[in-house]
Amino acid sequence: MRNKTITIIFGTMFAILFIALFKMQVLDYQKYRVFIDSLMQKTRLVQGTRGIIYDRNGTKLAWSIKIPFINYNRNYDFNELKNYLSADQVNQLITSGTVELSSDQSISLEKLGYDIQYKELRKYAPYVFHVVGYVDSSNEGKYGIEKTYNEILKGQFGSELVLISPSGKIKQKILKVPPENGQDIKLTIDYNLQKFISEELKKINNPGSVIVEDVTNGEILALVSYPYVEQSINLIDTYEWRKIVNDKQNPLLNRATMGLYSPGSAIKPLIAIAGLLNYSENLPTINCKGNFVYTSKSGKVLATYNDWLLSGHGETNLIKAIRVSCNVYFYNLALNLGIDKIKSVADMFKIDRKTGIDISEKEGLFPDRNWKEKKLNELWYPGDTIITGIGQGYILLTPLELLNLYVTIANNGKAPVPHLLKKEQTEYFNIVNIDESIWKTVKEGLIEVTSVSGDLSERGTAYTIFKDFDIKVAGKTGTAEVGNGKLPHSWFVGFAPAEDPKYAIIVMFENGGSGSEKAAPFARKVLEFLMKGNKEND
User: Fold this and answer.
1) Rounded Cα–Cα distance for residues 213 and 507 (Å)
2) With a threshold of 0.85, does the pTM exceed it?
3) Which CATH class is domain 191-537?
4) Which residues of the chain form CATH 3.90.1310.10?
């Protein structure tokens, strides 16, 4: 019955419209001919507004505003327009063919029949360039979240048919299909944390990156690459754009997901796991005297590899080796394992694979003999294996890939896909099934990095940084040599609380020096802010 009524109503409306048009165009054609012939029909597309991007707490990270404008028409009454536009606006309209209007101006002129149109301008919160990205002049996503979720965010086109009089004014909008606005989306980013990290990095002014992830579900709470573009891309003029492109610090590079770096000692937990998996009995204890001498079968010294502590660490087992970052221990362990076994464990963790995060990322490199022979046309030597044990040589990883290793350790083998779009279901990047005792041993070493005191040969490399911290942190420093007289990359990677992990963090400073001196203190500062914020929300 309802469908029949609706059909009757629409049928009646259509009949009335048909009769009116027939009367005007046929019966009364002579009467209306001059008026009809004088009108110009124009069909134009109107795009819906792009969706808003929010952080996890509802803070706007990207949104659109509609700016009214009017185009030049030689038939306009410019004496009338001067009553509503400034002299500068009138001059701009005549010389450039278009001029932007204020809201009040657009309302007044639209009432008079002027053809007011609207352009969409995308606005961005500061500090989120490498996460949110930007759109081009057509409001299509070109980078970051704007690109990944472009089809969801962008508005759909509608259309309108307008009749325009010879004076250029709109007489009537006859037909209109309304546009559809794009969907709003919510990200996992905590804007307050993102802002805090960004501002603190700016104070230090050292290129690098910081990522904070919720280990329970893969939500990225902060992802900062420094330096970053501080202006909105769509408001940057040609001169400023050239400055950005030619900046030696490369603010356009997202170092967190696209930068490839030697991980240094931050890779040692992976080597430790390889050792625990491949030794049928407990790993041996060594006497570290400050260097590792590699000899041939005949006893000839082929190479000497120094520890960072030239006086040595003395008697050192695996847990202590992680705690004090004993290079000599890991030289020995890597050489005894061989690159094939190390590589198989690296592949188990997918250490150099893209993580699946929903913005652009690069694939890392964990080399082996096949890679070297194919890429460099050279054999793999024992020396290559030795330095692989301390994260040097050919290894290149993004900070996100390295963080993913520690998330896996924190979760006893479960690595959720890191992501920026807020969602209910947790997807997994990887699951590593190994004996629980291995996780326990590695975690014990990582906890001792921040909690065991003593002299240089005994204390954890980040003990002085975290000794009075309220929450127990498991982590690892890294100091990755890069050569050419440059300072090493400075790393800290870890998770907290150590016994029941919630957050994982990675800090990397390019050519920042020692991991314990630069990256670890910054990591503590971020964790303090994070924990303080949680207490305030309790």
Assistant:
1) 12
2) yes
3) alpha beta
4) 38-186
